Amino acid sequence: MKKTFLLLFCLISFTGYSQILKRPIPDKLVVLTFDDAPASHYSVVAPLLKAYGFGATFFVCEFPPNFSDSTKYMNWRQIRALDQMGFEVANHTRSHAHVNELNRQQTTAQLAYIEDKCDSLGIPIPKSFAYPAYDISKTCFEVLEEKGYDFARAGGKRAYDPFKDHPYLLPSWATKEDNKDEIMAALQEAKAGKIVILTIHGVPDIEHPWVNTPPSLFSGYLDYLKDNHYHVISLSDLAQYIDPDEAKNSIAIDTSKPYKN
């Protein structure tokens, strides 16, 4: 009887997990995400990605106080152009707000601003979100669910395991000018069903030099990904492999893991 129960439990668990995947995760699957809408995402990053044929997600916000300075940040015309180029434009709150400091009404308003702005410009309403400063909150999880978001990216410096990581807590590594060895090692973890997600800020980042990725370093990463036959996609493209609703139903939100970069 005990063996029968254990077998039944394992079968039910396997069935639930198997439904998370729409198809097997290939080795060398990498997601590129870009945060904060610096000007270099339009002038440097997008043309390079197009040349390499890579997908990507751009998490946009109106970063205070200098969002109106076009030498530092993209304007909405340029953000719309990213969508027209085929990239995913996604939600990073209106003002790069730390969601752990917001109540429900404030969180909803921060997300709704970007949604409404996208909708007014003919950009698809975002279904992907990234936590500013990697700060997470239970309230934000609830708002994301209410709004029908599929995925939300945090930090944590580890690979994404679709069977263990909730879709609202996708881990990532962040590139900087001084952590090339860390990023190269991270790329080797895109295997055995795990996916590597990179967080990239400005290329270069004039406003926030502590998260700067020099263009030459960025180009080197793209060369490596291309030369070694990585499949580079946007965050929303994960839905080709993963059913986010099944994953949300099957995997508990675990905030005990590290989520900072």
Word description of this protein:
It comes from Echinicola soli. One of its GO terms (biological process) is carbohydrate metabolic process. Keywords: Signal. This is Polysaccharide deacetylase family protein. 37% of the residues lie in helices and 12% in strands. The chain is α/β, with parallel strands linked by helices. The protein has a single domain (25-250), classed as Alpha-Beta Barrel (TIM Barrel), CATH 3.20.20.370. Strands 1, 2, 3, 6, 7 and 8 form a six-stranded parallel sheet that branches. It has a two-stranded parallel sheet with strand order 4-5. The chain is globular.
Please give the number of β-strands. Answer: 8
Overall structural class, as computed from helix and strand content, comes to alpha/beta
Order of helices and strands: HEHEHEHEHEEHEHEH
Low-confidence stretches: 1-15
Give a brief outline of the structure.
It is built from 8 helices and 8 strands.
Question: What tags apply to this protein structure?
Answer:
261 residues, alpha/beta, TIM Barrel, 6-stranded parallel beta sheet, two-stranded parallel sheet, 8 helices, 8 strands, globular, disordered N terminus
